[in-house]
Amino acid sequence: MKKILILTFLFLLTISPCFSDDIEDATVYYNEAIDVYSQDDIPKSIELFKKALELNPNFYEARYNLAQILMSQEENEEALKILKEILTLRPNDTETLYNIGKIQYKRGYLSDSFNHLKKIPETAPQYESAKILITKIEKRQNELNLEAKISEHKILLDNQGRALAVELGEITAPSGVAIDSRGNIYSASFSENVIYKISIYGQKTVFARSNLIKGPIGLAIDKDNNIYAANYSANTIVKIKPNATASVFAVISKPYCLLYDSEHDRLYATEQNSNKLVKFDL
Is the pTM value of this prediction over 0.90? Predict the structure, then answer.
């Protein structure tokens, strides 16, 4: 940074021999700020850049580098204020647009971040980085929308009074569904032999995939967040621990539905092949 700043200062002196005293003093503070920054005296460098701006509010280079230092120190709120001041001087400055977008993304202001990043043209050096960040914003917005759908307790009805479904995720051949104590949702895929997890933030991931999971249908979760899956195709009930390790819990003929009784710490299962309802004390 020091080399670039010094060259900028010399350029200003070359093309502007008639600077006022204030502007000349501002450049002195500017160079001093560079020197102390090279000596890792960040607070003093910040102080000197601010003095330069007090004397010359239109000193773009001083304002820009002050913002960069503040960003490096995670002083994002103050850096954001300065970056927006830069935009009043140079509305199409793509580096500033990108930095504002990056800060606002970190702060969780996704819409403002998106709006600034979208102004960066394809010809700008920051375009590819901005595009990556825009993709992250769109993904996070989708997660937030799904999280709101999951957490919102609102009855939706059609014009005939029937309940309307709210889609939470797409799963091939979905069967059983259960929810743990943290609000995460689990759903079995009968054909894929997989247990999916939809987090409280709406993110869908494969929670458990094992040779022991074959044709899962019913799901239940106990007080310790262990998952039980009725393996219809394997004639077993599989227990899956919170760390996703699976083991055979019981052998029964064509298990179908599962229910956990938290009051008595019991697991109930329907045994379809023998037309039985059975229980297991946990």
Answer: no
CA distance 282 to 261: 10
Q: What is the pLDDT of residue 9?
A: 42
CATH architecture of the domain covering 2-146 = Alpha Horseshoe (1.25)
Dihedral angle, C-alpha 204, 208, 214, 219, nearest 10 °: -70
The HSE-up count of residue 173 (CA atoms within 13 Å, CB side) is 12
- The pLDDT of residue 20: 56
Q: Which residues of 117-153 are buried (b: 16+ CB within 10 A; e: fewer)?
A: bebbeeebebeeebeebbeebeebeebeebbeebeee
User: Is the confidence at residue 182, as pLDDT, over 80?
Assistant: yes
List the CATH code of the domain at 174-281.
2.120.10.30
Domain range summary for the chain, segments of one domain joined by +: 2-146, 174-281
Q: pLDDT by residue (tens digit) across 34-67?
A: 888 888 899 999 999 999 999 888 888 899 899 9
Residue 115 tokens read as 């709006």
CA distances, 241 to each of 244, 249, 251 (Å):
5, 11, 18
39 HSE (CA, 13 A, CB side)? 11
Radius of gyration of the chain (CA): 30
